[in-house]
Amino acid sequence: MEIVHRAAPCRNVPVTFTLERMKFRSVPWQVQLATALSILVWIVKAGNDGVGIASDPEVTSGTTFAVMRIALATFTHAVTALLIFLAVARKNWARTGLLLWTVGAWSFWFLYPPSFDEYSVWAVRLSIAMPIFEACALLLLFAPRSTAWYSSARAHAP
Question: What are the entry keywords (predicted)?
Fold first, then answer.
């Protein structure tokens, strides 16, 4: 559905807006920034896992370990992407799910603490920056304006 609006009374040039564009403009900047940070972290982590899998000789040998590692990486990144997409689609449960999913992933640091011995300085900085970006995204998703935006979705639901 399109809404046609005349730009000025003296001009006869139509300016069209789609409802989808108008809906995205109503998204608070906190949700937009949280989405951008979440997608950035997802791309970096998925790329890092992809490079790690491709360069691991044990994975490229086709063993059961290889299949399990590829399946686990694919599943975790697919769930993360789905939760990000649904949170942007104004599903409040997906926002909560993303919080629980992230905190659950962080809890694995206690079981398998990261070792930065073989990393370069930039890789260490990037590894430290990703959880900070995730934390900022989660704080923005649960900011008062974001919460109000998610709450108003329930009020307009059919």
Answer: Membrane, Transmembrane, Transmembrane helix
